[in-house]
Write a structure and sequence with these properties.
By secondary structure, the chain is of the alpha/beta class. 31% of the residues lie in helices and 14% in strands. The strands form two sheets. The chain has a seven-stranded parallel sheet, sandwiched between helices. The longest helix is centred in the C-terminal third of the chain and has 18 residues.
């Protein structure tokens, strides 16, 4: 008896064939009921697209596994599951799958994410931010644009010998710690489960130590998902405790940081700069002050857009499919109560 696997978000056709070729799998895939990818590694497709409902529901009625959350939407997933009584597992194609299923009554349905596939690219973005402001990249860019060769170049900092505080020690946080240690930095870390031993991290603490640790930090890297506990965790007190000219990077979720407090401290110069890939409101509104700040590196939630992202997502799914067929534990199971 084959396992009925339905593709429910846009995937390049050459990759769909890899699922079909797996032993023990019956692929349910009809491109006509799926939106096209709007850009590389687009997991949602055009939200205005509407499939042929009869065909869509026919496939859902046979499915036991879903690959992808339709339109990256909790509401659309809920609608799909209402017509899919046999589904036992949903493989999301994003790391933050907790937000895609928040508020849904999933019963015994297991949800897995692709957490970990972006660890290196997001860690490198954070390192980019730390290095850019240490080496005065914004000033260099301004001088180049103005064709200005200063008589006396300004002093710069070095990240080697400095201290970085990483808030969130999942795959991204650990990879960031590894890169920072390679550059000779002292690495402090905060995680929900509290003190312990984490590779590449010199000290590990719980969230209650955050403000005290910030007072020792030249850089703050945020990698946390958004949960009730993490919302606003990096508040004005934490930002104000950081060392002068400290750099803040965020590759987790925008609402983990008090953005109004961050803007104030970037404007008054108490912080040296920020490298931000995520924001509380996305797309970032045209009137956001972040657009105007010279000491902000702004990325449109694109630091994880590696060229082989579709392939990386599929690799997690096919590995999990083999595990599911063998009755083995799945990777990256989402705790829907915690939200990640």
């Amino acid at each position: 008896m084959s396992l009925a696997v339905m593709v429910t978000s846009p995937v390049p056709e050459e990759l769909v064939g890899r699922i079909a070729a797996m032993p023990g799998v019956e692929l349910l895939h009809d491109p006509s009921v799926l939106p096209s990818q709007r850009f590389a590694a687009d997991t949602g497709g055009d939200p205005a697209f509407r499939p042929d409902e009869a065909r869509w529901r026919e496939l859902l009625g046979r499915a036991e596994v879903l690959y992808g959350v339709p339109f990256n939407s909790p509401e659309r997933l809920g609608e799909a599951l209402a017509h899919a009584p046999n589904v036992r597992w949903v493989q999301a194609r994003v790391a933050g799958a907790g937000q895609q299923v928040r508020g849904l009554d999933l019963g015994d349905i297991v949800v897995t994410s692709v957490s970990g596939i972006h660890a290196r690219s997001l860690a490198e973005f954070s390192l980019l931010g730390l290095l850019a402001f240490a080496q005065a990249l914004p000033r260099l860019a301004a001088d180049k644009a103005a064709r200005h060769w200063p008589d006396a170049p300004e002093q710069i900092d070095e990240v080697g010998g400095s201290t970085v505080l990483i808030v969130g020690l999942g795959a991204i946080g650990i990879e960031t710690a590894r890169l920072c240690k390679a550059l000779g930095m002292t690495v402090l870390g905060v995680r929900r489960s509290g003190p312990g031993t984490v590779e590449h991290v010199d000290e590990v603490h719980g969230p209650d130590a955050l403000a005290g640790l910030a007072a020792r930090a030249d850089g703050l890297v945020v990698t946390l998902p958004l949960t009730d506990a993490s919302r606003g965790l990096v508040d004005d007190a934490v930002l104000g405790a950081l060392r002068p000219r400290a750099v803040v990077t965020n590759v987790g979720r925008g609402a983990v940081i008090d953005e109004a407090a961050l803007v104030r401290r970037l404007r008054d110069g108490s912080l040296g700069g920020a490298a931000l890939d995520v924001f509380d409101t996305e797309p970032l509104p045209p009137d956001s002050p972040f657009w105007e700040l010279d000491n902000v590196i702004l990325s449109p939630h694109g630091a994880a857009r590696v060229r082989d992202e579709d392939e990386r997502q599929l690799a997690v799914f096919t590995d999990n499919l083999e595990r599911f067929l063998a009755g083995a534990p799945l990777r990256n199971v989402v705790d829907t109560g915690q939200g990640y």
